[in-house]
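Sample A.
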Amino acid sequence: MMASTNTLAEDYIKSHSGKVKDVMTRNVLSVAETTSVADIAVLLETNRIKRVPVVRDRKLVGIVSRANLVQALAMTIDEPPSGAKADDRSIREKLLAELKAQKWAEVSPANVTVKDGVVHLWSSYLSKQEKRALIVAAENIPGVRRVEDHMRRVGVTLLG
């Protein structure tokens, strides 16, 4: 009850205060310019943040957002990465077709990648059953060696 009350009070302060100190994010995560795009994607996903500052010598030199990552991925979505096998493209296309045919599956093509026969799922899911079904769908595609689960559960918060 106390934690819930504190959270509600903090939310009220953030939505009603006119002072930066009350609305700013503290304990900011940052990355270096040399951090890989894949590592930044994992950082954003696992910490449920939308952007991360890029620093050099403790000075801000830029910001990478989810939108930046999606844009970079979208530029390469129709073309396999250099050296990628045609099998990876075929696995991805078959999995996307299978998921599109399922009423329960709402997965963006950008959230499915395949490299060397390993399917990476970056989607969000509502239930354990939905998550398991996504994994099973990927496992059933011929040529899939392994499925890497990068998914996160989306919770529904009820206020009342």
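Sample B, a different protein:
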Amino acid sequence: MRYAAIGDSFTEGVGDELPDGSFLGWADRVAAGLAAARGEPVGYANLAIRGRLLEPIVTGQLEAALSLTPAPTVLTLNGGGNDMLRPRADLRRLVALTAAAVRRCADAGVRLVLLSGADPSDRLPFGRAMRQRGEALTSGIAELAAANGLTFVDVFHDAEIRAPGYWSPDRLHLNAAGHRRVACLVLRALGEPAAEWTLRAGASDARRLRVELRYYRQHVLPWVGRRLRGRSSGDGRNGKHLDWTPVPP
């Protein structure tokens, strides 16, 4: 089996940090689960880059993944989260871009698995608007998957992952526990064995003024500054596995 993953920070694994500063993530964990289930190495490529909008994901990253030799056996796609953070997000266009990726994978004979991102809106500024956009996009992608007989992993509506213990301090990205939860959902959707991953104890979600001020200073204001400068956290970055990397069982 050869598994390729494309997307943004969610698929890159941001928040699931290793001691050396690199990121693991749910896609890496899925590759390991596939290898373990088969008892043999699995080829793994991850072309996801943090900050990417959906269009460069379904054009540049998708074409790079499909051009790998040999071609992927299965490919996961998630995107649109960064688009929804823009003031004028066109959700119909996001669904249309995903539909184009569906056709491209069908033409290439590659199995495509679609994912919705986890819902971060409970603890984000303007969270209500974000949830409305996420609901609309998730609904559109789910309908697209059903119409084309594709596997769809609905992380957005997973109630367990809404708990604060699954999220990084920036409240936008999952932490290691969150990525483990997503990997479990993906492997089960693929029909692979995966133990249920839940937190043993609920984490506190205290919202004190000092905590909120620190959060805005460390996470929100830098994000706003990048938007004003027209920059992205992924500028100058490449995917972490641009060619097939063997994942042992």
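Observation for Sample B: The first strand starts at residue 2 and ends at 6.
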